[in-house]
Amino acid sequence: MYDLLKGLRVVEGSAFVAAPTCGLYLAQMGAEVIRFDNVGGGPDFRRWPLAENGSSLYWEGLNKGKKSVALDLSSPAGREIAQRLATAPGKDAGLFITNFPVDGFLAYEKLKALREDLICVRVMGWADGSQGMDYTINAALGLPQMTGPAGDPRPVNHVLAAWDLLTGAYCAFGLVSALLARMRDGGGREIRAPLSDIGAATMANLGFTAETMLSGHQRPRMGNDIFGAFGRDFVTRDGQTLMLLAITPRQWSKALEALGLAVEVAALEAELGVSFATDEGLRFTHRARLYPLFERAFARRTAADLGPAFDAGGVTWGAYQPLEAALDDPRLYKDNPAFQTVRHPSGLSYPAPGAMATIPQDVRGPVQPAPKLGQNTDEVLAEVLGMSGPEIGRLHDTGVVAGADRR
After folding, report:
1. 220, 149 in Cβ contact below 8 A?
2. Rounded distance, CA 85 to CA 83, Å?
3. Which residues are CB-contacts of 79 (< 8 A; sequence separation ≥ 6)?
4. DSSP3 helix / strand / coil % (the chain, rounded to 5)
5. N or C: at which end does the chain have fewer Cβ atoms within 10 angstroms?
6. Element housing 52 (H / E)
7. 15 near 341, Cβ under 8 Å?
8. Both ends of the chain: CA-CA distance in Å?
9. Neighbours of 15 (CB within 10 A)
10. What pLDDT does residue 151 have?
11. Per DSSP, what are the bridge partners of residue 339?
């Protein structure tokens, strides 16, 4: 946790990955993020993975450092409170994150009528308002036909929700950008961020779309090969799989040196009339001739031999390992200062990350766990909306709001 956004109040009405990720990043940079959900939890409150006691590890991972308000969003009174929270006064407030539909009780025009300078960041599926999620957007973009082993006819979905995560990060950037603009011109804005546009634009930014338009067909599957460069997985004599990547001339020459392949590769260059050292594209073009040389070189050595040799030469490489092993890796989890062991609303204690960036000039604050559902209902209604104790009590009595789930 850092204090760069200390003093900002952001309200979040959302579910699933993209919008909660936006709120998470803002909270980890110091913003006060207040999330409202349905009494009993929204559609993501019990999402897998689950702890043995049924608590969602997913939910408490994406909501670290936030405050929780539980409302009956099916009731007019609950919806009115949600609207008032999103548009509550304050020069550092009026910041709202949601993935609720464009139309409805959280429509921008309805909220803007309550606060003219409201900034609303809205995650969407498709830009036309139709429903879409990460996997369906990904399928439409053609990536599952590019992913997986060469020759496999089945589409292969990536396990990482990349479009959700990119959209969440882009929304955090968009919200801060709109806030800076509001500080200059006083105006509010709605920023609509459809996963479809994030995905389509990213494919274009990376050259996928231009490549397909000019060639007439999308990129074929090629397993673990790195497109346009030299990179692939290789198996050592002791059966370990290592990923080797050689993009720059230095990476290439040092990899050949560590593997003892300089002479054999020079002979291949002479045969083909090319220089692999000066053109990474040629290494990719002729990878079918290069791979057998590398496969034999890897098969002659153990991972314990190759690792130090690669490191000494500054070769870019990595060992494949399961997450169980990664948890014991000091560079990833075990000794990573971004992680701290905290007690979560599930009642379990395990390491959790704070802000992913390191700011050497600032002190990294402690990781804040997710709240229990409804843990901050009374506090927020009193402090943000100025409700009295009796008024809050009546809302509890009528089921419009709820406190923390104590199970």
Report:
1. no
2. 5
3. 71, 73, 105
4. 40, 15, 45
5. C
6. none
7. no
8. 28
9. 23
10. 87
11. 353
| 3-class secondary structure, 181 | helix
**Which residue ranges in the chain fall short of pLDDT 50?**
407
Amino acid at 366: P
Q: Is 347 left (phi over 0), alpha (psi -120 to 50) or beta?
A: left
DSSP state string for 25-87? HHHHTT-EEEEEEETT--TTTTPSSB-TTS-BHHHHHHTTT-EEEEE-TTSHHHHHHHHHHHT
Instruction: State the pLDDT at residue 361.
Output: 96
> What are the pLDDT digits (tens) for 218-252?
999 999 999 999 999 999 999 999 999 999 999 99
Q: Is 33 exposed, middle or buried (0-12, 13-18, 19+ CB in 10 A)?
A: buried
CA 118 to chain centre: 26
The runs of H, that is alpha helices, within 186-278 are 195-205, 208-215, 249-259, 262-272
What is the pLDDT at residue 305? 95
Cα–Cα nearest to 350, from 14, 55, 47, 120: 55
Question: Using CA atoms, how far apart are residues 195 and 126, in angstroms rounded to an integer?
Answer: 6
* Separation CA 122–CA 96 (nearest Å): 8
pLDDT, residue 405, reads 64
The distance of Cα 187 from the centroid of its chain, to the nearest Å, equals 29
SS3 108: helix
**Residues sharing a CB contact under 8 Å with residue 386, sequence separation 6 or more, in sequence order:** none
Pairing of strands 349-353, 339-343: antiparallel
Element (H, E) at 278: none
**Position of tokens 């494919």?**
203
As to burial, measured by CB atoms within 10 angstroms (0-12 exposed, 13-18 middle, 19+ buried), residue 94 is buried
Residue 120 backbone zone (phi > 0: left; psi -120 to 50: alpha; other: beta): beta
Q: Please name the amino acid found at residue 197.
A: D
Residue 164 annotated as catalytic = yes
Which structure tokens are listed for 43? Answer: 């559609």
Q: Is the CB of residue 60 less than 8 Å from the CB of residue 371?
A: no
**What is the C-alpha separation between 337 and 156, in angstroms, rounded?**
35
Of the listed 164, 197, 238, 335, which one is catalytic? 164
Beta bridge partners of 8: none
Residues 6+ apart with CB under 8 A from 235: 241, 242, 295, 298, 299
